[in-house]
Amino acid sequence: MSGEKLMSKKKPAFPVKKRLDNYLDRYSRKIEIPIFYEDLLRFSGSVVVYDNDGEDTLWIRVYYSDFEREEIDLSLKRVYSILHSDGSEKILEYLNVDAVDYCTFGNSKPFRIKVRNILNDNYTYFYVKKTDASRIYGLELEHILSPYNLNFLVYKDTLIEEHIAGIPGDVFIKDFLPSCTEMEKSQLAKEFVKFNERCMIRLLGDMRSYNYVIMPVHDFDHVVYRIRAIDFDQQCFEGNLKVYRPQFFKENFQMVELVRTKLQIHSVDQYKIEERSIIAKRILSSEKRVRRLVNAAKTDKISLPEHIKTLRLQIYDLTHDMHFKKCETMGQILDLALDFVRRNYENVSMRQIIDKKF
After folding, report:
1. Which residues contact 181 (CB under 8 A, 6 or more apart)?
2. pLDDT tens digits, residue range 305-335?
């Protein structure tokens, strides 16, 4: 099913309320930076950015007047130092801002900054966006509950995100998947099952193929693939449970076909259990941090009332847990979803202990 049919037309940006702001401050996500998102909108012109095949990437490369360029470049280099180093100015003379790109597609309309080390020509990217509470919850949940750490900063109405490296899912499916070995396809199918389960449990929506990357990791004599989300705009917003399950997007059809053709049903079930168990362990190992984040979300407005009513009933139909019917906010639904996974894991673990004793 297409993303347009599954999802709402437009998602609003939600402000950062006091409890979330306090959380960000406690965990060093909130820090003063020398430039705002609005400052980057003062560009005086732009050109379209094309890929190697001459296709429009939906990014434009912006440029600024000579007067503003010097100040903006210096501020962006300082942001890089804060994000990736100790925030000192010692490294600034070795950095160059090669490009500032602006995305005209999607809700967040980010700026992508390319910073190069002039000593060795190594470069990296980071992104400048407008703050949105639901996106911040998504970034933080990814950091805590996924296999990957995530570096980001928030200052007033500006969000700074590190670049997540990998091959965009749509590019991988088109250009790389056909040449994968049968063993690699089986491994990709396994990873997609786990990714699908992870997104559903923590209510991360809209994982169409261009919103995640596939990372090839060389392990001895073979390649292992990992799937990682790169867009957190649709955290805890939509009311349709299918939005939180990547398997239902037509853009992921070929990945779903891999699962169907390469995995037996009991293997799919086993991989789902493995992913739930891993997430439960992460919840337990970061219990205080998860609790503080979820408590902020429980009192926050990060969705629409009609979405909350729809989602709580759909999750009840899936879990048969009456508590979901009483939820009044998306944060309460998220809290119960994570608690449901944790309790099931603890109950199974306790049964195993009892079985061993008797």
Report:
1. none
2. 999 999 999 999 988 899 999 999 999 999 9
- Return d(Cα 158, Cα 131) in angstroms, integer: 5
Measured CA to CA, the distance from residue 155 to residue 131 in angstroms comes to 8
For the chain, the farthest-separated pair of C-alpha atoms sits apart, in whole angstroms, at 78
Which residues sit opposite 111 in a β-bridge? 102, 128
User: What's the pTM value of the predicted model, to 2 decimals?
Assistant: 0.92
Distance, in Å, from the CA atom of 248 to the CA atom of 260, rounded to the nearest integer, reads: 14
CA distances from 111 to 100, 158, 166, 289 (A): 7, 11, 19, 30
**Structural tokens at position 64:** 């600024």
H or E stretch at 158: strand 158-162
DSSP structure string for 62-109: EE--HHHHHHHHHHHHHHHHHHHS-S-STTGGGEEEEEEEEE-SSSS-
> N- to C-terminal Cα distance for the chain?
49
Nearest to 82 by CA among 151, 165, 150: 151
pLDDT of 118-139, one tens digit each? 999 999 999 999 999 999 999 9
Q: What is the 3-state secondary structure (H, E, C) of 52-65?
A: CCCCEEEEEEEECC
Secondary structure of residue 32 in the 3-state scheme: coil
Three-state DSSP class for 320? coil
Q: Report CA 191 to chain centroid distance, whole Å.
A: 16
φ, ψ for residue 220, nearest 5 deg: 55, -110
